[in-house]
Design brief:
365 residues, mainly alpha, 17 helices, 4% strand, elongated
Length: 365
């Protein structure tokens, strides 16, 4: 018979996982919905004995893993647990997703203040501020630079890539016009070589302008936020399933992409086994918005009438032939699963056309 999950037992499990927590922290996480509520089963002198439901130990370990991978607030942990399938109500997860998006947006806006600030009503001034900040960030070195350094680029090219992505996130590329030059620099900034690389890498440069233009049409973080606020049950379920597969397969997927795109090992994984909560929040909203717009005819055509996911799956199979161990096999299985989910998510039912719409300044861990 399994040992009861008492408070002392959970504290020991946390310590064995590398995180020492107190009884008060455990109680706080339970009170705030990150862990199930315990049942009182007895008394040890003055201290009550609490026993937690089966599976709480796994949920506790998941919290510790999310914290180790960049979740610095309870909002980030809550979104991660919801994506993984734990019993977190969507209303609570939704508030945390929106808080993460707001934090990301506000951080971008605050960074622009020394350069003139962010003012959508004064596009020229805002554009100059974005360009000046991007030029500064493009000159950063080592760990201070968020992109890759494995591909040689001029500072002006890196700055153009950074500025373009920030305009997309801030909702300033809503017209969605494909821009080949900055899109090409964005892909190179990820560490993908434009010449002499694998076939998938060359195709990626061709499709990048359309993909990034579609992201712009979503309306950046403001558009993603709006999609989340009006999401139907079916859209939320599809986004949760897709995000869960992406989270579980984050590390092997990144390694497959690094191999398929000719990117230096570690460039995409950044030593993390999971996406950052802010990235996950953006993904959830982008998926919901994407389900409504789902139109990838241009992408399919640029991939030679072959959808992107089968192309990746083909690369995973090639990787499996030249790589020992279970990595490639797991990645191939992940790609098959995600391809199936994309098919389900694109169905009319998953998009929720027939359903009625629903009428990191977060808490510190």
């Amino acid at each position: 018979m399994a040992e009861p999950l008492t408070t002392d037992r959970l504290l020991l499990i946390a310590a064995q996982a590398g995180r020492r927590i107190t009884r008060k922290t455990l109680e706080s996480w339970s009170y705030k919905g990150l862990l199930p509520r315990p049942n009182r089963v007895g008394q040890d002198r003055r201290r009550p004995i609490w026993v937690y439901p089966r599976g709480t130990d796994e949920q506790l370990q998941s919290i510790i893993e999310w914290q180790a991978n960049g979740a610095r607030t309870l909002d980030g942990v809550r979104v991660g647990l919801w994506v993984e399938g734990y019993e977190i109500p969507w209303d609570a997860a939704k508030r945390s997703v929106l808080a993460l998006l707001d934090r990301t947006f506000n951080r971008l806006v605050k960074a622009l203040e020394p350069y003139g600030g962010f003012d959508p009503k004064r596009p020229a001034k805002t554009a100059r501020a974005i360009e000046e900040l991007a030029h500064k960030d493009a000159g950063r070195r080592g760990k201070n630079y968020p992109g890759a350094r494995s591909v040689r680029m001029k500072r002006a090219e890196r700055a153009e890539a950074i500025a373009y992505m920030r305009r997309i996130l801030l909702g300033l590329e809503a017209q969605g016009e494909p821009l080949p030059s900055p899109a090409r620099h964005v892909v190179r900034d990820l560490g993908v070589k434009q010449r002499g690389g694998p076939d998938l890498a060359r195709r990626l440069f061709g499709v990048a302008p359309t993909v990034l233009a579609n992201l712009g049409r979503v309306g950046g973080i403001p558009g993603v936020r709006g999609a989340i606020e009006t999401a139907t049950d079916e859209e939320v379920a599809a986004a949760r399933a897709f995000s869960r597969v992406a989270t579980i397969g984050f590390a092997p997927m990144a390694k497959v992409l690094e191999s398929a795109l000719g990117v230096s090992p570690g460039e995409l994984t950044r030593t993390s086994a999971r996406p950052l909560p802010s990235e996950l929040a953006t993904l959830i909203g982008a998926l919901i918005a994407g389900f409504r717009r789902a139109s990838d005819e241009d992408i399919v055509r640029q991939f030679g009438r072959q959808p992107p996911l089968p192309v990746l799956q083909k690369e995973a199979e090639r990787m499996g032939k030249r790589t020992e161990g279970a990595l490639a096999e797991d990645a191939g299985q992940f790609l098959s699963e995600i391809a199936s989910m994309v098919g389900d998510a694109r169905s009319p039912r998953a998009r929720g056309h027939a359903a009625k719409p629903r009428s990191e300044g977060g808490e510190e861990v």
